[in-house]
Write a structure and sequence with these properties.
Helices cover 66% and strands 0% of the residues. By secondary structure, the chain is mostly helical. The termini are far apart.
Protein backbone atom coordinates (compact mmCIF):
# COMPACT_ATOMS: atom_id res chain seq x y z
CA UNK A 1 0.00 0.00 0.00
CA UNK A 2 2.85 2.36 0.78
CA UNK A 3 4.20 1.82 -2.73
CA UNK A 4 0.93 2.85 -4.37
CA UNK A 5 0.29 5.82 -2.09
CA UNK A 6 3.83 7.15 -2.53
CA UNK A 7 3.77 6.60 -6.28
CA UNK A 8 0.54 8.60 -6.49
CA UNK A 9 2.61 11.66 -5.56
CA UNK A 10 4.10 11.43 -9.08
CA UNK A 11 0.78 12.52 -10.59
CA UNK A 12 1.12 16.20 -11.58
CA UNK A 13 -2.55 16.99 -10.92
CA UNK A 14 -1.81 16.68 -7.20
CA UNK A 15 0.64 19.57 -7.66
CA UNK A 16 3.30 17.40 -6.01
CA UNK A 17 2.00 18.41 -2.56
CA UNK A 18 3.38 15.41 -0.71
CA UNK A 19 6.10 14.51 -3.23
CA UNK A 20 9.44 13.33 -1.88
CA UNK A 21 11.90 11.91 -4.37
CA UNK A 22 13.90 10.21 -1.64
CA UNK A 23 10.78 8.29 -0.49
CA UNK A 24 10.15 7.06 -4.02
CA UNK A 25 13.77 5.93 -4.34
CA UNK A 26 13.59 4.07 -1.01
CA UNK A 27 10.49 2.22 -2.19
CA UNK A 28 12.08 1.41 -5.54
CA UNK A 29 15.09 -0.02 -3.69
CA UNK A 30 12.77 -2.06 -1.46
CA UNK A 31 10.27 -3.39 -4.04
CA UNK A 32 12.21 -3.43 -7.31
CA UNK A 33 15.80 -4.48 -6.51
CA UNK A 34 16.00 -6.67 -9.63
CA UNK A 35 14.75 -3.89 -11.93
CA UNK A 36 16.86 -0.99 -10.67
CA UNK A 37 20.58 -1.06 -9.89
CA UNK A 38 22.08 1.31 -7.34
CA UNK A 39 23.15 3.56 -10.24
CA UNK A 40 19.61 3.49 -11.63
CA UNK A 41 18.21 4.56 -8.26
CA UNK A 42 20.66 7.45 -8.11
CA UNK A 43 19.74 8.36 -11.71
CA UNK A 44 16.03 8.15 -10.84
CA UNK A 45 16.54 10.60 -7.99
CA UNK A 46 18.32 12.96 -10.39
CA UNK A 47 15.51 12.63 -12.97
CA UNK A 48 12.78 13.30 -10.42
CA UNK A 49 14.00 16.84 -9.66
CA UNK A 50 13.65 18.26 -13.21
CA UNK A 51 10.53 16.14 -13.76
CA UNK A 52 8.70 17.96 -10.97
CA UNK A 53 9.64 21.35 -12.43
CA UNK A 54 8.76 20.26 -15.98
CA UNK A 55 5.42 18.73 -14.99
CA UNK A 56 4.47 21.74 -12.87
CA UNK A 57 4.98 24.13 -15.78
CA UNK A 58 3.71 22.05 -18.72
CA UNK A 59 0.03 22.38 -19.67
CA UNK A 60 -0.26 18.80 -20.96
CA UNK A 61 1.16 17.27 -17.82
CA UNK A 62 -0.78 19.45 -15.36
CA UNK A 63 -4.14 17.85 -16.21
CA UNK A 64 -3.05 14.22 -15.87
CA UNK A 65 -4.84 12.30 -13.12
CA UNK A 66 -3.55 8.70 -13.34
CA UNK A 67 -0.19 6.96 -13.55
CA UNK A 68 -1.23 5.34 -16.84
CA UNK A 69 -2.01 8.71 -18.41
CA UNK A 70 1.29 10.08 -17.14
CA UNK A 71 3.22 7.20 -18.71
CA UNK A 72 1.39 7.60 -22.04
CA UNK A 73 1.96 11.35 -22.05
CA UNK A 74 5.68 11.02 -21.36
CA UNK A 75 6.04 8.53 -24.23
CA UNK A 76 3.86 10.53 -26.67
CA UNK A 77 5.72 13.78 -26.03
CA UNK A 78 9.13 12.12 -26.36
CA UNK A 79 10.02 12.76 -22.74
CA UNK A 80 10.57 9.04 -22.21
CA UNK A 81 14.13 9.55 -23.50
CA UNK A 82 14.77 12.19 -20.83
CA UNK A 83 12.86 10.49 -18.02
CA UNK A 84 13.58 6.87 -18.99
CA UNK A 85 13.89 5.67 -15.38
CA UNK A 86 10.65 7.38 -14.38
CA UNK A 87 8.89 5.72 -17.33
CA UNK A 88 10.31 2.34 -16.30
CA UNK A 89 9.03 2.88 -12.76
CA UNK A 90 5.61 3.94 -14.06
CA UNK A 91 5.37 0.83 -16.25
CA UNK A 92 6.13 -1.36 -13.25
CA UNK A 93 3.62 0.49 -11.08
CA UNK A 94 0.87 0.27 -13.70
CA UNK A 95 1.27 -3.52 -13.99
CA UNK A 96 1.28 -4.04 -10.22
CA UNK A 97 -2.52 -4.36 -9.81
CA UNK A 98 -2.68 -6.92 -12.62
CA UNK A 99 0.00 -9.07 -11.00
CA UNK A 100 -1.75 -8.88 -7.64
CA UNK A 101 -5.15 -9.73 -9.12
CA UNK A 102 -3.90 -12.89 -10.82
CA UNK A 103 -2.20 -14.08 -7.62
CA UNK A 104 -5.38 -13.45 -5.62
CA UNK A 105 -7.38 -15.28 -8.27
CA UNK A 106 -5.09 -18.30 -8.01
CA UNK A 107 -5.41 -18.42 -4.21
CA UNK A 108 -9.19 -18.13 -4.45
CA UNK A 109 -9.18 -21.04 -6.88
CA UNK A 110 -6.97 -23.03 -4.53
CA UNK A 111 -9.50 -22.50 -1.76
CA UNK A 112 -12.29 -23.81 -4.02
CA UNK A 113 -10.36 -26.79 -5.41
CA UNK A 114 -8.63 -27.98 -2.25
CA UNK A 115 -11.54 -29.07 -0.11
CA UNK A 116 -11.49 -31.50 2.78
CA UNK A 117 -12.24 -34.34 0.37
CA UNK A 118 -9.29 -33.40 -1.84
CA UNK A 119 -6.91 -32.52 0.98
CA UNK A 120 -4.63 -35.50 0.30
CA UNK A 121 -4.32 -34.68 -3.41
CA UNK A 122 -0.77 -34.87 -4.78
CA UNK A 123 0.82 -31.55 -5.71
CA UNK A 124 0.98 -32.35 -9.43
CA UNK A 125 -2.70 -33.34 -9.56
CA UNK A 126 -3.65 -30.25 -7.55
CA UNK A 127 -1.66 -28.02 -9.92
CA UNK A 128 -3.36 -29.60 -12.96
CA UNK A 129 -6.81 -29.09 -11.42
CA UNK A 130 -5.97 -25.47 -10.60
CA UNK A 131 -4.88 -24.76 -14.16
CA UNK A 132 -8.15 -26.15 -15.50
CA UNK A 133 -10.14 -24.11 -12.96
CA UNK A 134 -8.24 -20.84 -13.43
CA UNK A 135 -8.23 -21.09 -17.23
CA UNK A 136 -11.81 -22.31 -17.43
CA UNK A 137 -12.56 -20.02 -20.40
CA UNK A 138 -10.09 -22.07 -22.43
CA UNK A 139 -11.22 -25.37 -20.93
CA UNK A 140 -14.86 -24.66 -21.89
CA UNK A 141 -13.86 -24.86 -25.56
CA UNK A 142 -12.92 -28.55 -25.25
CA UNK A 143 -15.39 -31.37 -25.79
CA UNK A 144 -14.79 -33.60 -22.78
CA UNK A 145 -16.59 -36.55 -24.36
CA UNK A 146 -14.06 -36.51 -27.18
CA UNK A 147 -11.20 -36.34 -24.65
CA UNK A 148 -12.61 -39.33 -22.74
CA UNK A 149 -13.13 -41.30 -25.97
CA UNK A 150 -9.52 -40.61 -27.01
CA UNK A 151 -8.28 -41.63 -23.55
CA UNK A 152 -10.21 -44.92 -23.70
CA UNK A 153 -8.97 -45.59 -27.24
CA UNK A 154 -5.34 -45.44 -26.05
CA UNK A 155 -5.95 -48.59 -24.03
CA UNK A 156 -4.24 -49.97 -20.94
CA UNK A 157 -1.65 -47.69 -19.36
CA UNK A 158 -0.35 -49.76 -16.49
CA UNK A 159 3.39 -49.56 -16.06
CA UNK A 160 5.43 -52.75 -16.36
CA UNK A 161 7.19 -53.47 -13.08
Amino acid sequence: MDLLSTSATLIPRNRFKSFKGSDICKLVKKYYPADFTQQDIYGLEQQLKPFVVDASNDGELKNISTLTELCHCLVETGRDAIYNLIVRLLQLLVTLPVCTASAERAFSSLKIIKTRLRNKMADENLANNLVVHIEREIAEKYNFEAVLTEFKRKGDRKADL
